[in-house]
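User: Sequence recovery, please. Input:
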């Protein structure tokens, strides 16, 4: 125990760091023994968090520790349920990939027969070439984005197979890691923009969690495991809390009835290594789908200086020791979410330095069979766990504040006793030092006499303890222990279990303070029997081969002394040392030896000098005057506040330094003090000097303290002040601001928007005049009620929202703001006025914070549309209704066309089986292509999707010749009608090509452009339209090929009208013509194709459509 006020936290920090260092070494030793098949695996050694001190114990070297951490973070292995690609974040070139990536992405021969596995994906491949255009664009945008995690997940579709994936991205030193998780067939992929789905999954659970009454930690944890169990469906869900020594305890559990419960079990610290705890601080969620699955290797560019870090990857494989641990525990799959709270400076190793949060515990889910939880659901569970962490933090802070308040109150009373009484008052009066900290006994050893309270040793035993502390435990500092037995006190057994813990405070060699605690013999139920070295499985020892519970009886140990208690004890130590200078010197008068008297004088000089130093460096202004009112003391703070140096102040009358209005007050205080009467809380005004002369006077709130000689005569007065100038100025400004606030908040002006506010607990704290008018709800009906549930409701009890979804969205949005995330801007928000009319508005919500940045509530205001805007919205709704009616009519027409189309399909099937010759079969094939194209066009209902580029193209093998033939046949009738000849010009090798892609969209594009070329060709004899196809084949790897096709449709001048060309390339408008709409959609469809480009060329004698597209060549 040191003399500083922060000694408790410093010693705790030192103990924690020492414990963590020892634990890391134990983790390394444990993992090393597992990896070495021939050596015994002694698990029992790992249960003790302290490293053995015997010379026979082989402490791991720094290289062993480095290797262990390397395997944890850079193991180059991933779980096989997904695949991984690492790219350079500037060029998007692949620098590493998992060996299963090609097969999982559908790049193997069974998808495109001529492709080889190792050729489509290799080091240096452009990752954008693996995915469809929308996904490639999203990856490029993500690479250029700063905080990439907020974009997760990105929905990608493989270019060749069309398989959907969730891409979860994070940055590392070498580039960008892309974790690819397949989307299950029954799930619709969501992106970060659709992350509201994740919040919706957890919204009800969050509401139930936040509705729980405060003050019951156990109830809160039980509710969490039930909610997570319902969300995820795991066999077992636990809340696992870390204790100060690093070991964990299951404090809540929800599991199947046929499983053995783990509730109440304690687990050794090595069960969750320090390296894993560090990773949990960075990655809040960790999923292992199948611990028995063979991990997949990651191949990386050989030019990289070190292995790729997988510490942030969602796919990182568990190392062998942990996989075996799960298997022994009967768990095949797991999901773990970290619970963090506001950090303590004392636990630096378990604290996130960026966020300042500390790892409190984990939410652990186990399953007996392989299980994959999709990313949106994991994201929802993470959000739920964060809310749980906020609730835990509030509970802990409330308990801490109550304890701190009690200690400060007791400390204040004890200080008053010390300054007004001999030190024995702190043990003879009430409250006493036993009220300062929780203990079973306390004692003051003073003037060779013992004053004791509660359960304490005898006076002889106290003297023996003092001698032992001075000789063995830090000399003149003091000593704190939870167990005198473990600390080596020889007579600990004599004291018995009634006195196990002790805090001893050194004042002088003859003055000591003691607090004692009795032993807390308790039973700890450990999960895992003692390890048996003979228990082997072949040559390899298994981690924790048994999980049967065993009991451990902890004796001869008290409850630990926490940081707050130690700070209180240290503060009292300093105060007592200072107060002893006021003590009468009778204690040295009758001492017979001169050298002892000299020693006492020296000690007194040291104390006086220390007190002078403390006064001079005090954080408040202190000055002293003699009995005649002349300044004889002026500390540094007084000089700083007034601008008057010490040498200038000494010797001046105090009346010259105070304002005229305060002179009478000061003289009265001086007169009373000379009579022995001290004043408290008087306000005086001190003049400013020097550079501060132009500033206003300094306002001080002062207490007086009499200075006395050895015969108790008053020699002068000491004024101890507190500078409240800034505080008074702040109060004045606050009063003005508060007045402005009230005037703004309650102004009837239409310029003031509707405003309401909440506290950090969700209570409505403000409901202004404009909000009253807008809702019909009076302020007194809303204030001090829960904003969500009592004010805004889904029923008619108060301010009814549009529907339950609106309440859910509002709850999610406000929860996000209160947890410190970004403010909300213009969220569409609707509710009903008390008279039944519906109100639509845009909600903006901003977090309110205190001076430390802590969120204290939310400020919300509404933007209500003007009458003009309301009319526009009404027109928009009518327009939307008209559009909905048109959509219904279109759906009817599609339904009516569907039956004839099915009949045509049936007749085509009949003809195919009727023995047609080759030419007839060719015609039939062309008619089938046209019929399928017709069905495709009829089924198109998402024109906006085509406009925005979100429509997915089909992927199948097709013959280019058959598609071209279908295109020509579609415009043949128009060609005959317009007397325009079609000249087809493409090489024979093009006709033989078999491609992989969307043939129907290609037919739609070419038939639209070809028909418009014929339609706008003058109806003159001898004119023609040329239909040319050119190709360029590019090799990708040894056997895979890609063909770039150029379709050129040339027609005579003048060609298409200028207005039609503009409509083709400009955004859609209400007055867009039918031909313009068709060409515009065609242009958008071309862009969806790989390498797709549509251009229109116009020259003096001819015009031409040029369509470019790329397809894999089979």
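Assistant: Recovered sequence (1114 residues):
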């Amino acid at each position: 125990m040191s003399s500083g006020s922060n000694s408790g936290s410093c010693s705790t920090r030192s103990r924690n760091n020492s414990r963590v260092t020892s634990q890391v070494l134990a983790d390394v030793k444990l993992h090393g023994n597992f990896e070495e098949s021939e050596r015994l695996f002694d698990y029992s050694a790992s249960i003790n968090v302290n490293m053995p001190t015997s010379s026979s114990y082989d402490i791991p070297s720094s290289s062993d520790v480095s290797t262990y951490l390397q395997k944890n973070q850079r193991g180059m292995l991933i779980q096989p349920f997904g695949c991984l690609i690492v790219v350079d974040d500037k060029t998007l070139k692949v620098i590493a990939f998992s060996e299963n990536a090609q097969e999982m992405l559908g790049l193997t021969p069974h998808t495109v027969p001529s492709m080889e596995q190792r050729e489509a994906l290799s080091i240096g491949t452009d990752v954008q070439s693996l995915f469809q255009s929308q996904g490639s664009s999203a990856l490029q945008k993500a690479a250029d984005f700063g905080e990439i995690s907020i974009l997760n997940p990105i929905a990608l579709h493989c270019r060749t197979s069309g398989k959907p994936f969730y891409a979860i991205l994070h940055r590392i030193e070498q580039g960008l890691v892309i974790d690819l998780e397949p989307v299950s067939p029954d799930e619709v992929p969501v992106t970060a923009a659709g992350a509201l789905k994740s919040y919706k999954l957890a919204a009800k659970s969050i509401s139930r969690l936040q509705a729980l009454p405060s003050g019951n930690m156990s109830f809160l944890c039980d509710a969490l495991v039930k909610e997570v169990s319902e969300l995820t469906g795991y066999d077992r869900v636990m809340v696992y809390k870390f204790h100060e020594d690093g070991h964990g305890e299951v404090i809540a559990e929800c599991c199947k009835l046929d499983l053995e419960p783990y509730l109440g079990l304690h687990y050794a610290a090595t069960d969750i290594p320090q390296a894993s705890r560090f990773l949990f601080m960075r990655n809040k969620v960790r999923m292992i789908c199948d611990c028995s699955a063979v991990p997949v290797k990651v191949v990386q560019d050989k030019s990289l200086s070190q292995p790729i870090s997988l510490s942030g990857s969602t796919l990182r494989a568990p190392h062998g020791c942990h996989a075996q641990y799960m298997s022994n525990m009967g768990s095949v799959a797991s999901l773990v979410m970290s619970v963090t709270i506001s950090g303590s400076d004392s636990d630096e190793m378990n604290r996130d330095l960026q966020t300042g949060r500390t790892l409190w515990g984990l939410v652990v889910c186990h399953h007996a069979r392989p299980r994959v939880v999709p990313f949106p659901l994991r994201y929802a569970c993470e959000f739920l766990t964060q809310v749980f962490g906020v609730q835990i933090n509030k509970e802990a802070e409330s308990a801490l504040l109550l304890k701190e308040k009690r200690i400060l109150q007791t400390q204040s009373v004890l200080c008053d006793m010390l300054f007004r009484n001999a030190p024995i008052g702190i043990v003879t009066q009430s409250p006493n030092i036993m009220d300062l900290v929780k203990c079973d006994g306390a004692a003051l050893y003073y003037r060779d006499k013992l004053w004791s309270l509660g359960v304490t040793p005898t006076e002889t035993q106290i003297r023996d303890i003092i001698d032992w502390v001075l000789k063995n435990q830090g000399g003149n500092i003091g000593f704190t222990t939870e167990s005198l037995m473990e600390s080596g006190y020889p007579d600990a057994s004599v004291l018995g279990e009634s006195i196990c813990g002790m805090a001893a405070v050194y004042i002088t060699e003859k003055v000591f303070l003691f607090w004692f605690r009795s032993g807390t013999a308790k039973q700890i139920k450990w999960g895992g029997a003692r390890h048996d070295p003979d228990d082997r499985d072949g040559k390899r020892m298994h981690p924790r081969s048994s999980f049967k519970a065993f009991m451990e009886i902890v004796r001869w140990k008290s409850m630990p002394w926490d940081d707050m208690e130690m700070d209180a004890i240290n503060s009292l130590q300093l105060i007592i040392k200072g107060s002893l200078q006021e003590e009468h010197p009778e204690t040295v008068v009758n001492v017979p030896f001169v050298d002892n008297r000299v020693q006492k004088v020296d000690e007194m000089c040291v104390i006086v000098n220390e007190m002078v130093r403390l006064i001079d460096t005090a954080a408040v202004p202190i000055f002293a005057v003699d009995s005649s009112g002349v300044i004889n003391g002026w500390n540094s703070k007084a000089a700083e506040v007034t601008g008057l140096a010490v040498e200038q102040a000494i010797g001046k009358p105090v009346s010259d330094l105070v304002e005229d209005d305060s002179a009478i007050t000061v003289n009265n205080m001086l007169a009373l003090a000379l009579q022995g009467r001290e004043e408290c809380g008087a306000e005086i005004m001190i003049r400013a000097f020097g550079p501060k002369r132009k500033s206003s006077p300094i306002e001080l709130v002062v207490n007086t303290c009499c200075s006395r000689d050895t015969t108790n005569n008053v020699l002068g007065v000491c004024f101890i002040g507190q500078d409240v100038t800034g505080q008074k100025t702040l109060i004045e400004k606050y009063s003005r601001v508060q007045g402005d606030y009230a005037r703004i908040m309650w102004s009837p002006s239409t310029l003031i928007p509707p405003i309401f506010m909440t506290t950090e607990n969700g209570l409505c704290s403000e409901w202004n005049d404009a909000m009253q008018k807008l809702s019909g709800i009076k302020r007194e009906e809303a204030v001090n009620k829960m904003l969500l549930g009592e004010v805004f409701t889904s029923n008619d009890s108060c301010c009814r929202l549009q529907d339950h979804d609106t309440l859910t969205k509002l709850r999610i949005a406000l929860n996000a703001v209160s947890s410190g995330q970004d403010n909300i801007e213009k969220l569409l928000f609707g509710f009903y006025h008390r008279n039944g009319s519906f109100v639509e508005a845009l909600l903006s919500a901003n977090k309110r914070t205190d001076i430390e940045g802590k969120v204290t509530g939310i400020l919300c205001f509404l933007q209500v549309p003007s009458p003009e805007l309301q009319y526009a919205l009404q027109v928009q709704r009518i327009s939307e209704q008209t559009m909905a009616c048109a959509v219904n009519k279109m759906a009817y027409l599609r339904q009516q066309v569907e039956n004839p189309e099915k009949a045509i399909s049936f007749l085509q099937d009949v003809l195919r089986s009727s023995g047609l010759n080759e030419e007839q079969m060719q015609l039939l094939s062309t008619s089938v292509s046209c019929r399928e194209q017709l069905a495709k066009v009829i089924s198109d209902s998402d024109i906006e999707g085509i406009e925005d580029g979100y429509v997915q193209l089909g992927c199948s093998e097709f013959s280019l010749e058959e598609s071209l033939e279908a295109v020509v046949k579609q415009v043949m009738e128009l060609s005959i009608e317009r007397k325009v000849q079609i000249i087809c010009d493409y090489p024979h090798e093009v006709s033989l090509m078999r491609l992989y892609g969307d043939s129907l969209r290609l037919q739609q594009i070419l038939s639209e452009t070809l028909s418009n070329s014929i339609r706008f060709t003058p109806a003159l004899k001898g004119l023609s339209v040329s239909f040319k196809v050119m190709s360029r084949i590019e090799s990708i790897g040894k056997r895979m090929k890609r063909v770039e096709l150029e379709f050129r449709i040339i027609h005579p001048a003048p060609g298409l009208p200028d207005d039609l060309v503009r409509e083709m390339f400009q955004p859609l408008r209400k007055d867009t013509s039918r031909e313009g709409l068709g060409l515009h959609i065609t242009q958008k469809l071309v862009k969806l194709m790989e390498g797709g480009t549509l251009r229109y060329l116009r020259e003096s004698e001819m015009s031409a459509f040029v369509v470019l597209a790329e397809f894999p060549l089979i």
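The chain has 34 helices and 39 strands.
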